[in-house]
Amino acid sequence: MAKRTPEGPPPPPAVQKLRVRYARRGRLRFSSTRDFARALERALRRSGVPMAYSAGFHPHPKISYANGAPTGMASEAEFFEISVTEQLDPEQVRSALDDALPDGIDILDVVEAAPGALADRLEASRWQMVFHDIESGELEQVVQAFLAADTVEVSRMFKRGRKSFDARQPVLGARVEAGEDPRCAILTVVVRHTTPAVRPDDVLTALSLVASFAPPRPPLVTRLAQGRWDETTAEIIDPFDG
Amino acid sequence: MAPTLVGMPGESHFAALEPLLERVTKPIQYVGGELNSTVKDWNCGGYGPKGDERTVRWALMYPDAYEVGLPNQGVMILYEVLNEQPDALAERTYAVWPDMEVLMRERGVPQLSVDGHRAVRDFDVLGISFSTELGYTNMLTALDLAGIPLHAADRGEDDPLVVMGGHASFNPEPVADFIDAAIVGDGEEAVLGATELIGEWKAEGRPGGRREVLRRLAETGGVYVPAFYEVDYLPDGRIQRVAPAETGVPWRVGKHTVMELDEWPYPKAPLVPLAESVHERMSVEIFRGCTRGCRFCQAGMITRPVRERSITGIGEMVEQGLQASGFEEVGLLSLSSADHSEIADLTKGLADRYEGTNTGLSLPSTRVDAFNIDLANELTRNGRRSGLTFAPEGGSERIRKVINKMVSEDDLIRTVAAAYGAGWRQVKLYFMCGLPTETDEDVLQIAELAKRVIETGREVAGHNDIRCTVSIGGFVPKPHTPFQWAAQLSAEDTDARLHKLREAIRADKKVGRSIGFRYHDGKPGIVEGLLSRGDRRLGRVIEQVWRDGARFDGWSEHFSYERWMSAAERALEGTGVDVAWYTTRERGESEVLPWDHIDSGLDKEWLWQDWLDALDETEVEDCRWTPCFDCGVCPQMGTDIEIGPTGKTLLPLTVLGSGKQTMVREQAARGA
Lengths: 242, 672
Ligand code: SF4
Prior knowledge:
The complex is a heterodimer of chains A (242) and B (672).
Chain A: E1 16-24, H1 33-47, E2 63-66, E3 74-84, H2 90-100, E4 105-112, E5 124-132, H3 136-148, E6 153-158, E7 161-166, E8 171-178, E9 184-192, H4 200-211, E10 220-230, E11 235-237
Parallel strand pairs in A: 3-10
Antiparallel strand pairs in A: 1-3, 1-4, 2-3, 5-9, 5-10, 6-7, 8-9, 10-11
Helix pairs in contact in A: 1-2, 3-4
Chain B: H1 14-21, E1 56-62, H2 66-69, H3 73-83, E2 88-94, H4 98-107, E3 125-129, H5 136-146, E4 161-165, E5 181-183, H6 188-203, H7 209-219, E6 223-224, E7 229-233, E8 239-244, E9 253-254, E10 282-285, E11 287-288, H8 298-302, E12 307-308, H9 311-325, E13 329-333, H10 343-353, E14 360-362, H11 370-379, E15 387-393, H12 397-403, H13 409-421, E16 426-433, H14 440-461, E17 467-474, H15 491-507, H16 509-512, E18 515-519, H17 522-532, H18 539-547, H19 561-571, H20 579-583, E19 598-599, H21 604-615, H22 633-637, H23 665-671
Parallel strand pairs in B: 1-2, 1-3, 3-4, 4-5, 9-19, 10-13, 13-14, 15-16, 16-17, 17-18
Antiparallel strand pairs in B: 5-6, 7-8, 11-12
Residues 290, 292-294, 297, 299-300, 335-336 of chain B line the site of iron/sulfur cluster.
């Protein structure tokens, strides 16, 4: 007997590609990128977005994810792309999808994809780290010591074992401010995306290496922005601009 | 360390939990906020005439990890049913993993609900649903973390009532020390009854304290309160009698039975977790009960009579559930789904309705016949045909007569031939080892069967790329079944028999490589058997093993047989009974069984007769299709079995995906 193949017509083709920016807030910062992917596929079905599917026995909706923030960190600037089989109004998609997702995963912005790959528009991130029970003066000193170094080697476990890499060079800038509460300090860093990516926890490791810095509690981390890096203005450009 | 958090009752403790989340595996399981979850106002029920609060608050626990507990239908149904009541609220709580337990003890964070992160101790009732006895130690962890005394006798007015439900409550005796009450049978109507009663008592200003509210519950005849019963033992260790020790309390406690499933279309809005769970789909229960009368099957016996949901009722639930959840797969749930009287129309109707929407349909059915394969084919019209499962349960024709699984070897071969012929490449066969009267020969016959399956499969498929997996586990005799008197096979004998079977399967190299062999060793079965047919004397064993570190006994990586045996030896010292007495001992007709005062609707005389028939290798028919054999359930319920056919069909209509109308550009433009 011959092997079975799917019957019927092939799935309808994609006619439009949409780019989506979303935030992961509050307690939902503990969701992983896989958790998000599952939730998104379900939300797309609930809201009725006419997704384009791959062919075969196990059709998959065409979604591509870009550079998700690590589990446990909040974000105001996460991105993905979907392909759909009809021309849709991006704002309608935004509100329908936002309604279909749990509170704390909030769809901020949907645009029609401009040419080129989304990943090419994500060159750097701005991260905010809020430290409790640390004074800004103390943090400032540590950060200055870090900035003064040329390289700071850190290591972290990857799927294929422990790897060492430099956590200093990719850091394009760092600023310390006092929080509203005097016992609270806020560090903002801009990091260029490299391989492996330097994450806020790597920066933290680097701080502890240059100045034996050990915060009593891990900081609350939020990605504030992600986009192209403009050397001249030293700013992150919104990936949906231009 | 005892929980140290202070605050208003019903307050969220998320701020205390949050720092721990950074340090545990899979923190998402503790944060709640799932789609379709609810957090209600702590005082949604308002106040009684004298200002006494009347809100009845349930913490519902599934005593296993979140990933297992979240998809549990029972808890999901009760959660929704209770939250629909204006003056009740329900939140969920699950067993925390050992890494979290350590941190919670260190920081004094108590057991919390996942919804509002409210302290479990703040609720009026902690309802725990046990599908298996292996969750008992997790209950003790939760009580301890919650700051609720382990022993019901030590609880005070501020402690919740600890109420158990689920299949294990058909013999609640082993946990009699720890629970305040047990609700037996279907929960949805029963929790509403209990809620009303507790609400009234609260509004009256809690007269008589917890003893009084428990008494009122017990007087209904449908709630078992172990403290109101006394157990006497004979000198040889058997039970002499179990009798009420309180006036107004019934001798026997009846099970609850919801007769009209169509009136209870729950869950309407299934919970959708962010975290990965063991069932990545929604389920619709298409009927309750089973009449096939397999003698080993507790689920089939205790859920009688059969009550079907109508084809149109099922259609609505599927549609509503998909809309509310976005799941890509629907399971049509029941004990033996192919037995629904309109299953063919139902599967065809659903397959038509959801054609082209990338919605998967699944039907848990292990019936060994060609019809079952037709159904499976219908459900996979355009999908991959990977595996089909059949459950002959016993290896030889003789043993299948003993267990009343009426499948001949030729039936089985015909069925698998049809499956391979339809393009299915993998067939899974379920068996049990250690059935009453079983010998090595009965089990070794499984190897012969598997070989014939492969040979037949290769022939009809025309190629060798087919597989058969034999999955086998030890049989555990359960209360309220004809095998409740049977001796359980010891762990050593079970393992020895399984070993011989594996050798026999491997012996034939030519077919052996196409046969997979999966088995569960006999040790966990002995602990399950101990707890299933145990009595109140086991409370000390459970407490001891928990103090020795037992947690998550349903997980092989956490389960320790040695820990259980050593705890049992110490805790049962001086009682004259031991693990073997509870497990491998055959009981006699006149013995008082620890669960005799829990009424499952089945006549004990009928069960005994069925046990004798089993030993005689006499089969009984399915009462769904042939005349009643008087098990006792139907007359007692004052009904007949509730089945169709209704003669209705499903219209090929779905609103799934209709949301796109608002998004499509032309329409949006026209509307503007
Ligand atoms: S068919 Fe047999 S094993 Fe299956 S649920 Fe019914 S009685 Fe139990």
